[in-house]
Amino acid sequence: MRSTSLADTAPTSSPPYPVDPAERVSPILAYPGVRAMYEREGFIEVAPAAPVPGGPSRVAMVLDLR
Question: How many domains does the chain have?
Answer without folding.
Answer: 1
